[in-house]
Amino acid sequence: MSERRRGDANRLVIVGGGGHASDVLHAVAADGGWNVVGIVSDDPIDPSRFEGRGVARIGSVDELRRFSASPILAVGWPQARTALAARLPSGRRAAIVVHPSVDLGPLGAVGEGTVVLDRAHVSASVRLGRHVLVSYLSSVGHDSVVGDFTSVMPGAHVAGGCTIGSGVLIGAGAVVLEGRTVGDGATVAAGAVVTRDVEPEAVVGGVPARRLPR
Question: Per the confidence metrics, is the pTM higher than 0.85?
Answer without folding.
Answer: yes
